[in-house]
Amino acid sequence: MKTIVLSVALLSALAGGCAHVATPSVDAGAPAAEYVGTTEPFAANAVYFVLTDRFANGDPANDQREQGGPDPARRTFDRPTPGAEASGDNIGYLGGDFRGLLDNAGYIADMGFGAVWLTPIVDNPDEAFTGGDPIQSDAFFKDRGKTGFHGYWGVNFFELDEHLPSAGLDFAGLTAGLREHGLVTVLDIVANHGSPSFTMPVDQPKFGEIHDADGTLVADHQNLAPAELDPAGNPLHAFFHDEPDLAQLSNLDDTNPAVLDYFVRAYSQWIDQGAGAFRIDTIRHVPHPFWKAFSDRIRAQHPGFFMFGEAFDHEAANIAPHTWPENGGVSVLDFPLKAALQEVFGTADAGYETLAGALYLVDGPYTNPYELMTFYDNHDMPRMQADDAGFVDAHNWLFTARGIPVIYYGSEIGFMRGTGEHAGNRNYFGQARIDAAVGHPIREQLVRIANLRAATPALQRGLQLNVQLEGERAAFYRVLQHGGDAQIALVLLNKGDAPAAFEVERYLQAGRWRDALDGGRVEVADVGPLRATVPAHGVKVFVLDAPVRDAELAAALDIAMAGARRGD
């Protein structure tokens, strides 16, 4: 077994033939410095993301199995994807609903999650789309024969889609029930598009339409191509741009004050019914002034309301402006880090050094990198291709490193790993798999590390100070000294196939450290070091519940604190 020495100071001492000298301490009489990555309350949560129709069918009575009528081209329930029979992909509704989600709230909370992100809940068309291009197993933005099972084809943004509620369980009931399990409801919202709106052989009901709270038709594409619309002359076209954006979806006019007012009213209604945060779909398809006005109005009613957006772009410089206060101050899903995570924990098996550049811990473009939503895959891309150990390693990183972790439903068992959107990525999970997941090796380790994060403020909000990101080993500190909290966590990660011995001295503060995962205490003297063996594909977290006293650690944290946020 090879011992990895992480201390530059120790190497220097050995080279000079000198004994190690204890690092000076911070003046105990000086005011305590503040060390914190984020003060955002939502950062306490890790997020479990469900595509609601695909999670669990708790109430077959709301399946709407006859919806769309006898025409097989228009029926909405159970439509296997042509060419994807082996993968089980389906472009129809499969029955997942609020009851199935609430029935399994304990399953989610037990894993250590504090929030559930669910796909849009608003009313979608009642037929399959007959326009567009034929869908296939390798299709992207090909929607013929597809239904609104995913929720992103909104028609009335004030009305629940009929596939989701049950008798006695509306959205307010769902959010209240989730709260009883300690879960915040994150609602997926859309403001750049409605339903597919043109290329239908014959105009279909609801497609291309938008209705107000009282059911009034306020916009209708009328099955016209964007260039054929007359926004200035036809009141029903005024909600739309007259140029296309995504596939055949309506392209809503963000410059129209009525559009902004519509969405503020609609989404405020769902906050009033218990939505605790928003995930904003396709945020980059709407200019910043809209989001600035939207967020200002939402937060005027609900101060500090947390939102994060989806900008499918792997360049930090392109997605970071969404986080800036002048553009609305909305966090984002961390796509640049996602790309690196797939390299490190997927089949490429890249080293931990691959992650370093995407962290932007100092002098980065984001308002605050500690508030980014970190993830390795979702419903719009292939699931991560990794073995069980790869998923375990990925979770050990996500739940200890900077950011707010997001896990896509099923990843706790490696469900449909490596598959794309129409090859199994959105397959139905179901109660049988949920029940069988308890005890799965990926889930067992996820429960362990996620519950540790939930119980450890430094892992939620502390500054990150890297000691080593190299090959199969990573070592870093998370330090929180703010608002009465004083906690230092040392994280050691090993994604190798053999145990790894760590010897950590750099930035190490003397004291009685507790082994947060495995129990016990480790006494660290002034001269250090801390030695530990991390199992194959394992993690060790040592926690010191004390203020920062080590001068070397304080100096490094001062630099990290000064450069952590844009404008610092």
From TrEMBL:
<dbReference type="Pfam" id="PF00128">
    <property type="entry name" value="Alpha-amylase"/>
</dbReference>
<keyword id="KW-0479">Metal-binding</keyword>
<feature type="domain" description="Glycosyl hydrolase family 13 catalytic">
    <location>
        <begin position="49"/>
        <end position="453"/>
    </location>
</feature>
<feature type="signal peptide">
    <location>
        <begin position="1"/>
        <end position="21"/>
    </location>
</feature>
<dbReference type="InterPro" id="IPR017853">
    <property type="entry name" value="GH"/>
</dbReference>
<feature type="compositionally biased region" description="Basic and acidic residues">
    <location>
        <begin position="62"/>
        <end position="78"/>
    </location>
</feature>
<protein>
    <submittedName>
        <fullName>Cyclomaltodextrin glucanotransferase</fullName>
    </submittedName>
</protein>
<keyword id="KW-0808">Transferase</keyword>
<keyword id="KW-0732">Signal</keyword>
<dbReference type="InterPro" id="IPR006047">
    <property type="entry name" value="GH13_cat_dom"/>
</dbReference>
<dbReference type="GO" id="GO:0005975">
    <property type="term" value="P:carbohydrate metabolic process"/>
</dbReference>
<feature type="region of interest" description="Disordered">
    <location>
        <begin position="59"/>
        <end position="88"/>
    </location>
</feature>
<dbReference type="GO" id="GO:0016740">
    <property type="term" value="F:transferase activity"/>
</dbReference>
<dbReference type="GO" id="GO:0046872">
    <property type="term" value="F:metal ion binding"/>
</dbReference>
